[in-house]
Every structure is written in C-alpha cells, then in structure tokens.
Amino acid sequence: MNPINVTLPVTVVKGKGRGKKMGIPTLNFAIPKTLKLPHGVYAGWLIAGKYKYQAAIHFGPRPQFNETDPSLEAYLLQNAIIPQNTELQLTFSAFIRNVQKFPSVSEMLKRIAVDVKEINKILLQL
C-alpha cells in the first residue's frame, strides 16, 4: 500500500452510464485543476456534508473503451443518497494500481472486484 492524503473539492458531472449498466455505478466528477496525482486506481473517501463514504477511485484514461482523455470517477462501497447541491470532497488515501486495458470487459470487472476488496481492507486500517 502506498498511503497518501490528498483531499479536493469535486463537482459531479453526467457520465455515460456504462458503470450502472455493468453493475458498478460510479459518480463522475469534473477534474479539479489542482489534481496532480498520477493516473491510476485509488482507495479513498467521498465526503458529502457530514457523511463519509468508502470509494474506489479511478483517475485517468479509459483504455478499455478506447478513451484517451482522463476521467475522474468513484464507485462508492456503501449505498449513498447524496442530496443535490451538497458540497463534495474526494480524498485519495492510497494508490492501488495503474490504469490498464484488459483482454475483455469481463476481465476488467473481475479485477474491479479484486480492487474493491483490497480497497475495503485498506480503508478499514486507516
């Protein structure tokens, strides 16, 4: 584990809906200009007002879908209802792995399941 502690304000933007269709709905964010971390998958937290949710965070391109522009999205490990106009912050707590392209979407989903288990363990230790 490579612990870090970077917290940034984030704004939700409309995504393409792919995560929801694959059973891993994500919140998509505008990329803050102050985000200077390397592209990758991170363990972290979404802070919404007084609530804090464990998150698997992806920052970077989406090579699985041939998209080279970076994106920022978070899959929350708990169910959450976030009211509109809630101020949000995203905390990056640990680097998990680099962004990669998988042989298939099925292989990508298997790896995401492994990532989520690892992220849950890491965040329980922090």
Automatic annotation (TrEMBL):
Domain Riboflavin kinase: 1-124
Any one Pfam family match given in the protein's UniProt record, by short name: Flavokinase
GO molecular function: ATP binding; riboflavin kinase activity
Keyword field contains Transferase: yes
Domain of life: Bacteria
GO biological process: FMN biosynthetic process; riboflavin biosynthetic process
Gene3D superfamilies reported in the protein's UniProt record: Riboflavin kinase-like (2.40.30.30)
SUPFAM superfamilies documented for this protein: Riboflavin kinase-like
Protein name in UniProt: riboflavin kinase
Organism in which the protein naturally occurs: Candidatus Gottesmanbacteria bacterium GW2011_GWB1_43_11
